[in-house]
Amino acid sequence: MNKDQAKGIAKDIAGKVQEEAGKLSGDKAQQVKGIGKQISGKAQKIYGDAKEAAKDAKKHS
To answer: Which residues of the chain have pLDDT under 50?
Structure first.
């Protein structure tokens, strides 16, 4: 696991927590920010996954 994968997972989890906190408090802005953070985290994890795949492909060629 590379740093982008780890940061992406952490950001996704933080976004889920923020979204739920927004739901509990009725704060729509926090919900939206949480969803945005989740999307950003997922994108960063996908980028990290691609880096790992490229590194593995290079190693096996």
So the answer is: none
